[in-house]
Amino acid sequence: MLKEFFRGLTDMLFPKTCLSCKTRLITEALICPDCKNKIKINIPPFCIRCGKHLENKNLNKNVCPACRKTPLYFDRAFSPCIYEGVIQKLIHQFKYGNKRSLSPVLAGLMNEFIREYGIYLDFIDWIIPIPLSSARMREREYNQSELLSRHIAQEIQKKVSQDILIRSRNTLTQTGLKHSQRRENVKGSFKVRDCKPIKGRNLLLIDDVLTTGATASEAAYTLKNAGANVVFVLTLAN
Length: 238
Ligand SMILES: [Zn+2]
Ligand SMILES: [Zn+2]
Known about the structure:
Strand order of the largest sheet: 1-7-6-2-3
Shape: globular
Largest sheet: 5 strands, parallel
Number of strands: 7
CATH topology of the largest domain: Rossmann fold
Strand content: 5-15%
Bound molecules: zinc ion
CATH architecture of the largest domain: 3-Layer(aba) Sandwich
Radius of gyration: 19 Å
């Protein structure tokens, strides 16, 4: 009886459960300390193209086998986390579970990474979130990459542009597709609305996940065709 009363009281005070494992939380955090510790952090050495962890340093001038096989159109990508376990669950909640409140936590990991490795981004002119198609935007009501971009912008003191790059058509989900199929799927799916603001400019693309890099690469290809100079990519996980 008393136990139930206290549980009811806790429910009222802290009605939340961990967004990853669903255990009850006794603080205002969004995930429990256990899950926080289980987040897999991306550690050096990094591939100098896609930013994934390299098994053997210096073997091939710090470029991973995938990037040697299929060159990507962006100049460099960075990610603080490995896309599995807790982070995978959190990204799912963030994208499909309407958990916008996760954006400061997730972007915080990206900002920590920028600070820890002293990633030089002073030369960046625009932060550009990977856009959603209008159909997907209606479905989800927000673009997760745009939410992350706002926090990154605050950290590095740069402006976000949401209307330079747009999706010209809806694409199938990339999940379950092979590398070559992914590239085919996103081909021609981006468009630059106005070339003027990016001519000779340096851009930082923001997305939640970089798996094969096909989406970010296609976006970079489109931006460079429109006159962009350097295109960097920052994602939460890879
Ligand atoms: Zn948990
Ligand atoms: Zn690579």
